[in-house]
Amino acid sequence: MIDSHAHLNEIKEVDAALIRARDAGVTGIVAVGIDLASNLATLELSRRHPEFVYPALGYHPWSITPGGLEENLAFIREHLAGGAALGEVGLDYQAKVKKKLQQEVLGELLKIAAQEEKPVILHTRFSQERTLRMVKEAGIAKAVFHWYSGPLDILQEIMTAGYFISATPALAYSPPHQAAVQAAPLSQILMETDAPVSYQGKVSEPAHLLVTARELSRLQGIELSQVMAATTANARGFFNI
What we know:
alpha/beta, TIM Barrel, 8-stranded parallel sheet, two-stranded antiparallel ribbon, about 45% helix
């Protein structure tokens, strides 16, 4: 299995967590960044764990500040070529950062991803329609709408465009997330943990990708082994790893 989205730099005793992940059958982890500090930490983790930790460099909408724009964008311009993806980036219409600024930053980031021909990992809280439009207009070939729990009509547009959604352990209890993975073909689904996010009070780690796999198997009515094989192949093709 491949965990397509984890914040490894935020996990305490990360080396021990990576051992537990391997023991659980995880063969690769895409470690996402949200700002300059996490991007640096993610690159370092990927150097320490080659062909297991794959770095994605991002600038999360929660992290955007007018004073930090140039430094963060410049770092991504310089280093994205060596990463597996751009991410985590996107729009969050519940965040305090002004929508216009979020859109301007995402527009610049998508230009970089398009130039480097990198896939994009998207955060799209209450912004799925606008984000999809921006991604398509930027000419992005590969995008994953992380932890998709949005409208099903927009989901169908995402699927038609050839993009992906990702499934998380929240499948165990979130009706909107469950509805999304039931409406999407397995061929356009990635699995993730978003570790160390807490699910119903339990802090997650990459080893908990098994929870995602079991719930995805249950909701799609497909054998667990088939879910694991298909989503692993999806992730390898998506991230070119």
